[in-house]
Amino acid sequence: MMESNFLQLAFGDGTPKKAFFTALVVGSILTSINHGDMILSGEYPYWLKIVLTYCVPYCVTTWGAITGKLARLKKVS
After folding, report:
1. Which of 9, 26, 51, 62 has its CA 20 to 30 A from that of 77?
2. Residue 3 is assigned to a structural domain of this protein
3. How far apart are CA 58 and CA 26, in angstroms?
4. pTM
């Protein structure tokens, strides 16, 4: 029961789409800040670092959506 509620909170109401676009923007900014000089010099950082740079804002956005939805549900109850 709890698992289905969590999945609904995490994947309902357009949360993945919002998290994806946030990760795209924030991940790109962070990649350019953290690895831009290396990329511009023709070197490429370890791919896992780049993947994680995009995953973190995705997870943070999703977690924020979940906690916001839970807070709204508690107010209604």
Report:
1. 62
2. no
3. 9
4. 0.86
